[in-house]
Fold each of these.
Amino acid sequence: MFTKASEVTDLLVQASADFVLPRFRALADQDVQEKSPGDLVTVADIDVEHFLNNHLPSLLTGSCVVGEEAYAKDPDVLERLSNEEAVWLVDPVDGTVNFAHGRETFCVMVALVRKGETVMSWIHDPLSGTTAFAEKGSGAFWGDQRLRTPTPPSFSQLHGQINFAYFDHDMRSPLKTRANEAFGSLTRLGCAGHDFLAQARGTRHFAFYRRLWSWDHVPGTLLLQEAGGRVGLLDGARIHPADRVQGLITAANEELWFKIKDFLDNYL
């Protein structure tokens, strides 16, 4: 088993200190570009991925890196998650839009995928300087604190999010009305890493995503599962790290997961 988890944490801390924090609320116009309409990339994204691409493989012989920005240049790199022995999956700045607009909800994420299975993940919050870590079968941690999802409250007190765009257009309005009546609050963080982390810590309780790329869902999925939560697709299909998942439900525990699924099934 890989034994250098703390060294990955150290790399995330260093990358954040060198490339992320100095740019927070200090980006020049030329430091932000569009990969496609509405899909932003900053110099921080590029520099962090380059740094991790140079350092992570040295921690595990024969490993390689798949990063969000590398995919933007060559979509075939995702095949490594299925074909390679060991892959570091990197989201250099998750919540790039938040970061680019000076909002505080962003993070740096890494997952280690071995033979198509996620075995470790890290979510680093640059602003607090704290890293969440999960290892398959060994639990999830926020710094030194073991994460265990608390028992969620009643529906009327649940906090989470629903991407209504997943549903047919004529179903969205009634679903939105019913959801706003049923739940305590529905808010979108714009950062999957922080959403998974908040669910693992119990400050949020569920989410329903229209679609997520591998670097968005793989690190947080392991973290939430190891903390006691449940993750699965609305249609019951198996999730693979290489998949761009669609219709993903995440929840604090299995019972709540099925309650959310039943609620959403009524609008399909």
Amino acid sequence: MKKLSSFMRGCYIAAIFVLLYLPVMLMITLSFNESNTPYSWGGFSFIKYEKLFSNDRIMDAIGNTLLLGVVSAAVATVVGTLACVAMLAMKKRLQNTVKTVANIPLLNADIVTGVALMLFFTAVIGRMSIATLGISHVTLVLPYVVLNVYPRLVQFDKNVYEAALDLGCTPVGSFFKVELPNIMPGIISGFIMAFTMSLDDFVISYFTKGSSFQTLPLLIYSMTKKRVTPKIYALATIIFVVILTLLIVSNLMGTKEERLRVKMAKHEKFYKEYFLKNREPYYAGIHGSAYLDKYRKKK
């Protein structure tokens, strides 16, 4: 019975992965098909990629999308990190309220956010432009930065920050020299997530874009109104590979940080064992490392 249950679970998971990734694998395969029709194989070729990179309209849209993604992700990362630092200084009830408000764009439908931003910009500015598109993308990706940075700040040991202040460091200097390096993995993960979401957005860009600025999702939508051209296969394959690479990098960073956290936990165990045995006071940071070296020599 257990073997049958395990077999059924395996079949269920396999079916989910087939439904998710078989269309993507088919698209990647067709991007290397020399034939323009998806119903026949004409041989392995890079002709679709050559046509893609020789199309000035697509290249301009790729440049616009990358520029918009990097700028909006960078602005959202700075604003989101400062917002997380400010949230930690608030009272617990106010802190929870701000967190809830910050998470509303994650739960809200994109079309509602897009229409609301369009109405706001129309009433305040009177027209859509590159600036309205950039502000909209920052609004879209900001919660993802907060979602990645805030837990790192909560886990950070404030005693280290206060120790830096006691040793003569200014609050700003202590933040950049002590706190910022410790939460940097969360900041980088937030930036990658924000860039990915900006790269993928269509609905909000559709409602808030200017007439002279076109992103890649909007261009793909306009090209697929009549017939999907073979160049789209190559373009979608490149987008998939880029996003997959960013996700792998983000996960590897998380794995590396988890290993470091386990290593620090083992060191903490060494500290406590040594201090209890020798009845010496506990010191964090550099002093703790010195005691650890002393303890290892005794061992």
